[in-house]
Recover the amino acids of this structure.
């Protein structure tokens, strides 16, 4: 038996580290919605100068978008009531919603939209995720009247209304021209003003950012008076804060789903799944080794029981994938393609036919991407399946910073040619973008195939959404037939838990960020 003093000492040892690790949270929660975030990115409040993580995760509550994409991928009005292409396909005319107010009380107009597209996201210091695309793609923005703006593009841009939506990033917001001209960009970064349902109150770097509800917002006013987003990098600390009532909503991983569900918390899921897969690098290079043979690539796929992975490692939060990284809400998603079956006997036969009756050796790089925390467990499971068919797999833990230069090199680094790696991302809204980035041999990043370049170019040059979708679908049919990679699952891997004090959270697809959707949270009665 422990005496009283020893029990007190043990209690301090167990509890004190948690108390020290947990950031300060407002004691009077009252009608403050308290959210434990895993990351704030670069912690700049200027959305034109940040990555997507900072622009959506840190300042997302401040903004509305010109258009909106719902959980099913449907495009709907936002700050823009309507949009119409020009006869030559090289312009778009947007009718803006009248009466929308910035947080300083001024009305949003066409001049603000012109300023945003021509100066905000095109100025030399801008570095948001799609700045290069906007600098090259937009030639002129004309103010037609107070609430009508015409965007002239360098070439036909059929997906432009989609690119102005909440899903691709931050560039579809409208910045306050007069306010920025008055306070300057640095002043704007210190005290940002937007059109969203929350207005800025305070930002303490490395700790929290706080917002106040806009009571007469044009679309939906928050049910909470304030929103306080607290930076809590450690997952275990976020869960502990949720259980002890220090926060109302917390970002969690798949590993914590069972624990928080048993504790009675509700789970909110990102409506757009994360694509989890194994890359096979440079399969078309002469020195790619065994994976250059389609029979080997087929064997590596047939060896894996994806249903079992979904049910065990992923706790049923997803489904086996047929292709990657395209999302079910993306333009051109090939819904008719089926996941490869689990057939280790056929896999061994294929290896023998390819000249590898005793298998071969391969490296499997395990690296964290897109917030997917189970990459090491996934690598171990896949290695186990491959070992069954004779493929000797060496797992190489690494990080994205060290690994990225290897796959963006042209030609790709011999350290990864013919090897494999875990990967996870959210698919882009325009399936042609994923083709160009991941699969095209002429693409700037992964270059995992060389036989869909023509289809990728056709998709990029199509003048209609239907035309783009047709070319994208054809390309994925080729990739699926050739077993170019190892799709694992489309996973509901970006999750949040919330307690009994909150109800009604409805998420929109924001590339894995809940912050812009927290306006829907309602205090439970």
């Amino acid at each position: 038996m422990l005496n009283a003093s020893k029990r007190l000492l043990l209690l301090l040892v167990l509890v004190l580290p948690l108390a020290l690790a947990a950031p300060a949270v407002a004691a009077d929660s009252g009608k403050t919605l308290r959210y434990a975030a895993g990351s704030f990115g670069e912690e700049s409040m200027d959305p034109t100068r940040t990555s997507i993580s900072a622009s959506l995760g840190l300042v997302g509550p401040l903004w509305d978008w010109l258009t909106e994409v719902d959980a099913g991928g449907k495009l709907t009005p936002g700050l823009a009531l309507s949009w119409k292409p020009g006869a030559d396909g090289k312009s778009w005319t947007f009718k803006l919603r009248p009466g929308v107010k910035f947080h300083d009380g001024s009305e949003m107009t066409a001049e603000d939209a012109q300023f945003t597209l021509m100066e905000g996201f095109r100025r030399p210091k801008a570095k948001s995720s799609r700045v290069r695309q906007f600098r090259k793609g937009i030639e002129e923005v004309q103010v037609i009247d107070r609430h009508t703006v015409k965007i002239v593009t360098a070439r036909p841009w059929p997906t432009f209304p989609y690119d102005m939506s909440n899903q691709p990033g931050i560039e579809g917001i409208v910045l306050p021209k007069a306010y920025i001209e008055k306070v300057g960009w640095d002043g704007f970064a210190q005290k940002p003003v937007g059109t969203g349902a929350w207005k800025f109150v305070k930002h303490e770097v490395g700790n929290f950012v706080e917002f106040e509800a806009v009571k007469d917002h044009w679309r939906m006013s928050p049910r909470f008076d304030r929103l306080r987003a607290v930076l809590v990098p450690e997952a275990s600390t976020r869960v502990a804060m949720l259980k002890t009532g220090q926060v109302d909503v917390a970002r969690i991983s798949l590993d914590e789903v069972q624990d928080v569900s048993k504790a009675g918390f509700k789970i909110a899921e990102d409506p757009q799944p994360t694509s989890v897969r194994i890359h096979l690098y440079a399969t078309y290079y002469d020195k790619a080794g065994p994976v250059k043979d389609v029979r080997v690539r087929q064997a590596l796929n047939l060896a894996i029981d994806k249903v079992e992975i979904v049910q065990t490692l992923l706790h049923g939060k997803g489904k086996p994938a047929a292709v990657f990284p395209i999302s079910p809400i993306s333009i051109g998603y090939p819904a008719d393609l089926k996941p490869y079956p689990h057939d280790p006997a056929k896999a061994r036969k294929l290896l023998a036919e390819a000249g590898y009756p005793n298998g071969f050796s391969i490296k499997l790089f395990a690296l964290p991407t897109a917030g997917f925390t189970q990459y090491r467990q996934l690598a171990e499971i896949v290695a186990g399946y491959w070992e069954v068919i004779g493929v000797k797999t060496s797992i190489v833990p690494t990080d994205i910073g060290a690994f990225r230069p290897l796959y963006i090199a042209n030609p790709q680094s011999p350290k990864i040619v013919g090897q494999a790696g875990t990967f996870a991302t959210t698919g882009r809204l325009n399936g042609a973008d994923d083709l160009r980035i991941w699969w095209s041999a002429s693409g700037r990043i992964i270059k995992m195939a060389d036989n869909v370049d023509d289809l990728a170019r056709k998709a990029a040059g199509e003048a209609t959404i239907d035309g783009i979708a047709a070319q994208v679908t054809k390309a994925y049919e080729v990739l699926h037939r050739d077993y170019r990679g190892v799709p694992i699952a489309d996973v509901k891997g970006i999750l949040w838990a919330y307690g009994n004090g909150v109800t009604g959270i409805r998420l929109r697809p924001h590339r894995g960020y809940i912050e812009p959707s927290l306006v829907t949270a309602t205090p439970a009665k």
Notes: Residues 1-30 have pLDDT under 50 and may be disordered.
